[in-house]
């Protein structure tokens, strides 16, 4: 059974690696795609935005459908859609075809991501096992983001940008071949909660909201539409016989607090993932490949902490203590970046940041466990979709807020006569300062809102029994989920 559980975890991690790899690999090749396909400067952003809008807006619906139709079934369907969309993207001959394929990739990724970690924790219900499993996913996320930047440069330079999408095909086929190790579940059935109107309102509302964040044109119109649609969704959920998202989920202090904290934390961490890479390329004049290699120490440090240290720390001081410790390291990392010089050297100026960012290896597994500890078993997919949705919202808001702050400061310094390098550095410093403040607020939320749940032997026994019982009983076991793969986007 342990062998089968390990194989299932490997399959789920492979799927996560595929989606994260796709997100980070795209950013490196965007200039080449612009030239080959004839994208306008404003249209180029839709290579990222189409994915982000579909991914973020469909997560909640996908999570609920996973509860109703079966999480394994949703996982397989999402992987198939993602692989097929990757083929279309790799064969794209124009901007419209590539943007449509990216939208389909986002939809497939949402379908798979909304249920994947819920399956993991059904397999690993004990707190210590759960921490180790989340550590594997934290490592996969960090490794996928860094490998994607390196691989994107290699594939684009040696082959062509088409291969950054086509490489998903063998990875996806391998993941599908291993789906037999993932335990089946029967789902609750569509009659248990198929709120079609609610699904339309929340999906359209989230699409409009994310579009308002990532696309400046018509921002106020799309923002107003988002407010109206989401208000209608809340009203619908209060009156529907079978609501898509029962409002009791939001009344849970643990779930609500963890989702708020995640928006702040992910928004701040995005400043590291994106702006540090931009600083290396635009100020230090690193190539795409050099930038990816320079980011590898961050992936390695997160890997060591998430795979080796996180479970032990969580077992010793609890999930909340581990979360606060991880956030504190991240504050130090961004604080270090606020003093970046124009002519930074890697070892004294950047390497310490790459090591301190290992705090993410503590914070991500801990917030995943805390965020889902209050969810009812029959709401696991719903809570997973909500958790993944707030992660995407954090990314979108992080891009908008931090890049806007950096651009504004840069423009001001240029107007005052500063050099381009000095002006860019000043803008990045301000963005890192804003990110550090967001992390400090996150520490306050963790300290005063969240609490570490006490281990429940009966839950552990129930979860283990579900694994032993097989498909018929697995659907009734406690299940939780966590964050989806992050999507890299250049502001």
From TrEMBL:
Pfam families: MFS_1 (PF07690). Keywords: Cell membrane, Membrane, Transmembrane, Transmembrane helix, Transport. Residues 8-454 form the Major facilitator superfamily (MFS) profile domain. Gene3D superfamilies: MFS general substrate transporter like domains, Multidrug resistance protein D. The chain crosses the membrane at residues 7-32, 44-62, 74-94, 106-126, 133-155, 161-182, 194-214, 220-239, 260-280, 292-314, 321-338, 350-372, 393-410, 430-450. It is found in: Cell membrane. It is a multi-pass membrane protein. This is DHA2 family efflux MFS transporter permease subunit.
């Amino acid at each position: 059974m342990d062998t089968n559980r390990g194989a299932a975890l490997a399959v789920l991690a492979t799927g996560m690696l595929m989606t994260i790899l796709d997100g980070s690999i795209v950013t490196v090749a965007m200039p080449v795609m612009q030239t080959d396909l004839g994208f306008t400067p404003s249209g180029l952003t839709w290579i990222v935005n189409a994915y982000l809008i579909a991914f973020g807006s469909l997560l909640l619906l996908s999570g609920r459908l996973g509860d109703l139709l079966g999480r394994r079934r949703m996982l397989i369907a999402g992987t198939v859609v993602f692989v097929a969309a990757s083929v279309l993207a790799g064969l794209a001959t124009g901007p419209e075809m590539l943007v449509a394929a990216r939208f389909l990739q986002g939809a497939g990724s949402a379908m798979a991501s909304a249920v994947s970690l819920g399956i993991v924790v059904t397999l690993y219900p004990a707190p210590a096992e759960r921490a180790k499993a989340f550590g594997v996913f934290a490592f996969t996320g960090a490794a996928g983001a860094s490998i994607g930047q390196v691989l994107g440069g290699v594939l684009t330079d040696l082959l062509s940008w088409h291969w950054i999408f086509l490489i998903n095909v063998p990875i996806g086929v391998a993941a599908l071949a291993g789906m037999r190790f993932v335990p089946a579940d029967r789902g609750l059935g569509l009659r248990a909660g198929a709120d079609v109107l609610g699904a339309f309102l929340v999906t359209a509302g989230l699409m409009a909201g994310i579009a308002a964040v990532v696309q400046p044109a018509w921002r106020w119109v799309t923002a107003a539409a988002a407010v109206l649609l989401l208000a209608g969704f809340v009203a619908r959920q209060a009156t529907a016989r079978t609501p898509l998202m029962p409002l009791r989920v939001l009344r849970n202090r643990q779930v609500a607090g963890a989702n708020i904290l995640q928006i702040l934390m992910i928004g701040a961490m995005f400043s590291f993932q994106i702006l540090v890479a931009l600083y290396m390329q635009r100020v230090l004049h690193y190539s795409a490949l050099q930038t990816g290699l320079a980011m590898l120490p961050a992936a390695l440090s997160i890997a060591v902490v998430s795979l080796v240290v996180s479970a032990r720390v969580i077992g010793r001081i609890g999930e909340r203590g581990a979360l606060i410790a991880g956030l504190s390291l991240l504050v130090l990392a961004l604080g270090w970046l606020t003093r970046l010089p124009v002519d930074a050297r890697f070892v004294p100026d950047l390497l310490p940041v790459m090591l301190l960012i290992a705090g993410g290896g503590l914070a991500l597994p801990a917030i995943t466990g805390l965020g889902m500890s209050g969810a009812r078993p029959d709401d696991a997919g719903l809570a997973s979709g909500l958790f993944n949705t707030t992660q995407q919202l954090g990314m979108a808001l992080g891009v908008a807020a931090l890049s806007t702050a950096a651009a504004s400061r840069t423009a001001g310094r240029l107007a005052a006569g500063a050099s381009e390098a000095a002006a860019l550095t000043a803008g990045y410093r301000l963005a890192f300062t804003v990110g550090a403040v967001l992390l400090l607020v996150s520490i306050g939320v963790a300290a005063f809102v969240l609490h570490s749940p006490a281990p429940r032997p009966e839950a552990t026994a129930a979860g283990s029994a579900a694994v032993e019982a097989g498909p018929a009983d697995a659907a009734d076991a406690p299940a939780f989920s966590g964050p989806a793969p992050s999507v890299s986007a250049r502001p």
